[in-house]
């Protein structure tokens, strides 16, 4: 029992010591004497090994929860909702090799992949596993960095597999595959090349075709980022879609996309926008959006505005306009409270695309730790 107790005390004391400086230890002679005794019992290197492991693991997490009021076609609905509770750990195995695991406690396992940096600098890194695809400007970004409570624009949500395309299903913008990425020119140029299953998260490929995705970013001046992305592939339909009734569940179909956009940040404004197009067999979808965020006298309080247009199928006249206006208050680092009004000119209800306006008031609390 004595060796077991000694090991336990070593783990406890070394973990507690991670949050203390050497100065504190010297100023507390009794604690220093106890640590010395334990180290002699289990060996001098054990606390250093435990501290090294702890230093190599970064823990992150955030939660989104709030209240939603909707008015559609004369009907009012309201609900409290917990949208997402994510936790992830990033382990640095070596200076070049790392592993990440992410789970959404309100949904499913989201990401698990390993990165290995091939070059001494950041020019080339390989990633293998399940992660966000690089299509569109917005999709790789965390919801905690987005201004809208309903997160991404309609075009991004549909084309990148975030959930509104029934043919692809709800994939949260993620997929299984291989990625090569890096940056050069002192961070001004960043690129990414991906080979993905094209079937979504936690699934094997539904056909023998792979999706190829390319992404390039260029930062000509401080605060400005120009982004272009594209995808070539073939999808395997998991269900039928009112946006493309010619494709049946189980069919393989052409699925190509491209987008161009920008992101600009300065002291007085944050803005980003994008133009997108998608091709599913013979159906064409296209749209664009512009989102702005302006501080109101202090960086803690911001005015948010967004206009979003997307046509889900240009042949079937399935266009939708969306406008967002609201406020957000950053009460602690990456934690905020948001209130927004959302207008939509059309919406999907079951198997129908209804061209009638809808109105929503959304409130959300964001809590995040790094």
Low-confidence stretches: 1-29
Total number of domains: 2
How many strands? 19
Backbone shape: globular
Look at the structure and name the CATH superfamily of the largest domain: Porin
End-to-end separation in angstroms reads 38 Å
Named CATH topology of the largest domain? Porin
Gyration radius over CA? 24 Å
How do the SSEs run, as a string of H and E? HHHHEEEEEHEEEEEEEEEEEEEE
Number of helices: 5
CATH classification class of the largest domain: Mainly Beta
Helix content: 10-25%
What portion of residues belong to β-strands?
A: over 45%
Largest β sheet strand count, sense and barrel closure: 16 strands, antiparallel, barrel
Helix/strand class: mainly beta
Q: State the CATH architecture of the largest domain.
A: Beta Barrel
Strand order of the largest sheet: 1-2-3-4-5-6-7-8-9-11-12-13-14-15-16-19
**Could you report the average pLDDT, rounded to the nearest whole number?**
89
């Amino acid at each position: 029992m004595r060796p077991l107790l000694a090991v336990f005390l070593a783990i406890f004391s070394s973990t507690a010591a991670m949050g203390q400086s050497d100065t504190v230890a010297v100023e507390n002679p009794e604690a220093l004497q106890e640590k010395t005794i334990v180290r002699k019992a289990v060996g001098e290197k054990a606390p250093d090994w435990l501290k090294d492991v702890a230093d190599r693991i970064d823990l992150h997490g955030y939660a989104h929860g709030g209240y939603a009021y909707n008015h559609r076609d004369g009907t009012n609905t309201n609900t409290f909702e917990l949208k997402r509770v994510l936790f992830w750990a990033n382990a640095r195995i070596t200076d070049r090799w790392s592993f990440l695991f992410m789970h959404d406690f309100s949904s499913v396992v989201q990401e698990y992949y390993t990165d290995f940096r091939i070059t001494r600098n950041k020019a080339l890194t390989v990633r293998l596993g399940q992660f966000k695809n690089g299509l569109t400007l917005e999709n790789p970004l965390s919801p905690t960095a987005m201004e809208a409570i309903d997160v991404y624009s309609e075009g991004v949500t549909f084309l990148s597999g975030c959930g509104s395309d029934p043919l692809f299903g709800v994939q949260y913008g993620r997929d299984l595959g291989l990625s090569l990425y890096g940056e050069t020119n002192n961070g001004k140029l960043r690129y990414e090349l991906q080979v993905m299953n094209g079937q979504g998260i936690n699934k094997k490929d539904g056909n023998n075709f792979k999706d190829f995705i390319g992404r390039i970013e260029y930062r000509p001046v401080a605060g400005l980022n120009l982004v272009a992305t594209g995808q070539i592939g073939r999808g395997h339909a998991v269900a039928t879609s009112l946006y493309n009734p010619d494709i049946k569940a189980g069919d393989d179909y052409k699925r190509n996309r491209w987008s161009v956009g920008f992101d600009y940040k300065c002291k007085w404004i944050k803005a980003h926008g994008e133009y997108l197009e998608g091709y599913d067999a013979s159906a064409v979808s296209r749209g664009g959006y512009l989102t702005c965020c302006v501080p109101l006298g202090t960086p803690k309080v911001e005015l948010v505005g967004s206009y979003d247009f997307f046509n889900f199928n240009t042949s079937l006249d399935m266009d939708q306009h969306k406008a967002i206006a609201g406020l957000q208050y950053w009460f602690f680092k990456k934690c905020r409270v948001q209130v927004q009004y959302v207008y939509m000119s059309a919406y999907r209800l079951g198997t129908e695309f209804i061209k009638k306006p809808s109105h929503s008031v959304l409130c959300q609390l964001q809590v995040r730790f790094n």
